[in-house]
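Worked example 2:
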Amino acid sequence: MRNIVPAFALLLLLGITSCINKEPYYIDKENKAIVSRNEPFHRVVIDGNNKEVTFLNYGDQKGNYTIYFNRPNPGYMVAEGFGLNKNYVLNLALGTKYSVIIYGKDNQAVKVINFKTDYRGSIVTGDD
């Protein structure tokens, strides 16, 4: 019985630490997307390749936890310049730096994530 208590305490501590270290937003390199762990995106601005693209969650789209860079994103109106587009695809340019600015419900910026693409089109972050 004495061995069970320390083992349980260690597992509990590891479980708590793994939850604490996870960022609420991250770049999913494999799927070429930005993901929210906690709540749907409200507004996201992606700046790079000499253009600024804004993704706006419209209606009551509660499942909008992911924005893909390489395919349309249902539930988002996308603005690039003056037009709005429901089927916009943001094709990432090769060898380009990008900034992703995430806004909360109160329209305040809550997170900025920077990444770049290499000359093969793969996403590279500061973790690499």
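Strands lie at 25-28, 33-36, 43-48, 51-57, 66-68, 76-80, 83-85, 97-103, 109-117, 123-124. The helical segments are 4-20.
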